[in-house]
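Contributing new records

If you add data, match the layout below exactly. Sequence lines come first and carry their own label; structure lines follow with theirs. Keep one chain per record. Anything else will be rejected by the validation script.
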Amino acid sequence: MLLRAAAALISTALVATLNLMSAPLHYPATSKSNVVDTYHGVRVEDSYRWLEDDNAPATQDWVKRQNEVTFGYLQEIPQREGIRKRMAQLFNFERFGVPSKQGSRYFFSRNDGLQNQSVWYTTLRLDAEPTVLLDPNKLSTDGTVAIGRLEPSEDGSKVAYQFSKSGSDWQEIRIRDVASGQELPDRLEWVKFSGISWAKDGSGFYYSRYDVPKPGSALTAVNEFQKVYFHTVGMAQSTDRLVYERKDQAKWGLGASVSDDGHYLLFSVSQGTDTRNRFFYQDLQKAGSPVVELLNDFDASYNFVGNDGPVFWFLTDLKAPRGRLIAIDTRTPERTAWKELIPQSEATLTQVSVLGERFVCDTLRDARSEVRIHQLNGTFEKALELPGIGSASGFGGKREDTETFFGFTSFTVPGRIYRYDFKTGQSTLWKQPKVAFQPDDFETQQVWVTSKDGVKLPMFITHKKGLKPNGHTPTLLYGYGGFNISLTPTFSVGNLVWLEMGGIYAVPNLRGGGEYGEEWHQAGTKLRKQNVFNDFIASAEWLIQQGWTSPKQLAIQGGSNGGLLVGACMTQRPELYGACLPAVGVMDMLRFHKFTIGWAWTSDYGSSENENEFKALYAYSPYHNLKPKTAYPPTLVTTGDHDDRVVPAHSFKFAARLQEVHTGPNPVLIRIDVKAGHGAGKPVSKQIEERADQLAFLAHQFDVPAPKAP
């Protein structure tokens, strides 16, 4: 009976597989409009412009019909349910956020495993049973309300928190009394890209917001003229005091925070995603004091670290692309009077905190974390011992604190939380997640790849221990390469399932990222953006040449700017990959700046309004470089209908054009998640479903069996 049942199961799976392989896909008919733009004398067709209107009934009908085809295909994949079950099983582990302390209270988040959103807790002692402070799972029935930021007041008696709905970048701020757990009546709306910084007396806090968008345009309208307000607890938002605005600077992003000593209000003034910024301040001890434009040359990044009275400390890349720490005395702010406390080193200085009367410096060396502690005069004191090769994060707190917390993770180590004691100089493990797998069954190595122009870049490769190159191992190559963002070793349940299925997971550190400082970042921007794609293509070729895999067994994946990466590489080298997974990608490089915060990305991409930059953008724009009668790899595009970071029109137009020009039997599908955005705050249930669908898609293309239950 058992053999007969097993044979029946195998037969069912085989039939489903054969049906998928033989049945031709019928994509929904997508109408074309006669839209042509002229850029610097070049006529550019945009036949799917109508898909940019996400509110139009025609667009919504298109989304519905595309999802019917995509989910109809995915549900026939035999491995899908086994992958989903293993994903859910592995996701079901207790995990914690890095704690912070305000007043006498600790605050931290915790997820018991399959909760859609992590719950916030508070406690007076780390060894005591914590009290639930805020459970976002009770704010919606489907888990699509997410907490973006939670900030306790100075004494820890109140918390202000931001939450979003359905994955949107728009946030609402509310306030909760910690002791009673009662919600206060305050409601602050139209908040986006904002911090929360409490006044020292707890009377209110500073935050940033935009004007109310026009009806129906909240998810697509351009975000400009951000303003800083002060909200008084218990008052209506309409009474909030306007603290700072710049009517002459539509593109300036304005954020304000109070210095730890309460003496200054600090303004970090950004311009899009440019790493350079301006820095202003205001003396809060003197009524009516002006805003002082301390650093207004927009010539480097200046990240405020802390202050010793009127002396301000900054992490900057001025004359130091890998970062250094300087001191500026605001009484004598001339550049000739600036002092260097910690010079640039071979490692990239990414963060500096003032804790325990010391500087705690988080650095990257070949995309791996190192933490170094310096005295306040800059003298090196010690290197903090980390558990291994991976990524450290956290180190929050105040100058006088004698403890801090940090998290550590790697490709096979879920986030452990440590407490560091400045008095003893020792780190102790506070929380260690227990995941139902054996980390010792896997290994990670770092290799070096030579790109097209001879530049060498590192790449992490993770796989089952003992695996040797055999030329045909299914491999997933993941990349980003932009906006000064570094890809460091990080634990992912989805990647773990892929590794258990026998796959290789590879992550190259491409130019455009921040792994080697600002020069590395700039080498992958604007007219040099092609370097990023060349780096990724070189990484794919290296994996093939070294015998790890073959083009038919190689998949590429990336999200957002990484979605652009996948789109550009699959249009430039379609024969190099066996599958492509572009997620929430920037696919129309000529119009990205016309939606929400897209204009901010011109610092990395350039703009089609500039002739030279237009030529570079047009040369690689994924939407515009799909060629007729071309066999593209099996492709599963993913996006969310509430993505107001990279509006879903990018993916809509790319998928429509791809289905139009593609030839051959390979599936080219788009999966459009509803009540989902760019990714932040996505419920665990949606994460499991989406990742399982992506892995099932790869498993079907590469003929990989589903993972076996332990």
